[in-house]
Amino acid sequence: MTALASTCRPEVPPERLRDIARAAEDSGLDELWLWEDCFWGGAMSSAAALLAWTSRLRVGIGVLPVPLRNVALTAMETSTLYRLFPGRVTVGVGHGVQDWMGQVGARADSPVTLLGEYISALRALMRGETVTAQGRYVRLDDVTLGWPPAPPAAIFSAAAGPRTLRLSGELADGTVLDSSTTAERVREARRLVDEGRAAAGRTDPHSLVVYLRTLTGPGAQDRLAREIEQGNVQPDSAVVAGDAPAIAEAVRFWADAGADTVALYPSSDTLDPAAFIRFTAEKVRPLIG
Question: What is the pLDDT of residues 145-168, one digit of tens each?
């Protein structure tokens, strides 16, 4: 069955995270996803707070931009979260928005090479291995985590292009697709991920996460029409406007296209992110078969 999640956008002020946690826990939301955009709050610290303020909520980070973070540090923080909150956290990584990476002096000439080296090293560290790597970007000398998670942590990867999708299938445990995707691209993503998995001899499960941009409330259809007219949204991408039944229908559509998790995320002009979370859990979730 497809999992339904809601999101906490990076623009939500850190001082409002406790309200987000309370809304998610009290409404019975299963999963809350967030991501790390420059230059808002840190995803690891935000996830830790949300997990600490709740008792059963699962939190996904989709995703961390790897050029900002040494892989050993990501391994240390990821392992800490998995050990503190077993079964309640998923961490994903991606090569980041290149303009932002340029702003901080971390832009890679080959983002796919960086991502591949990074995921390989990160998953090895998560397995408790001692890692020495002399790659183009990732360089480790006899590094072992003091507190690796048991069992090893699942690592997801953001992906869009064919090379990255195959890489995600080969190296990662799940793939995150943003709202610019289309149904055809989701089906193609599954095919390419499976190619990577086959090449690596992997038979374990591999989840696809699709972010579904969601506009609801008064004037939702008109707001979406303006977004499309302005060229901000492609009409066949992962976007929906309407009430709970319309959104539930869209979730089923993306599940049929191949999504294992559909994460609803509100537009940036949503004034009450906690209310959006309650809407997801209390109004949309009951309509999903």
Answer: 999 999 988 999 999 999 999 999
What is the torsional sign of CA 145, 149, 150, 152? negative
3-state secondary structure of 82: helix
CA dist., res. 15 & res. 109, Å (int): 37
178-216 tens-digit pLDDT: 999 999 999 999 999 999 999 999 999 999 999 999 999
Domain total in the chain? 1
Domain that holds residue 234: 3-287
Residue 225, Cβ density class (10 Å: 0-12 exposed, 13-18 middle, ≥19 buried): middle
DSSP string of 185-254, one letter each residue: HHHHHHHHHHHHHHHHT--S--EEEEEEEEE-STTHHHHHHHHHHTTSS-TTBSEEESSHHHHHHHHHHH
Q: What is the pLDDT of residues 62-96, one digit of tens each?
A: 999 999 999 999 999 999 999 999 999 999 999 99
Tokens matching residue 286: 């009951």
CATH of the domain at 242: 3.20.20.30
Q: Are 188 and 206 in contact (CB under 8 A)?
A: no
The dihedral sign for the CA sequence 278, 287, 247, 185 = positive
Rounded-to-integer distance, Cα 274 and Cα 14, Å:
13
Q: How many helices (H) does the chain have, and how many strands (E)?
A: 10, 11
Query: In this structure, what token pair is assigned to residue 209?
Result: 């996460």
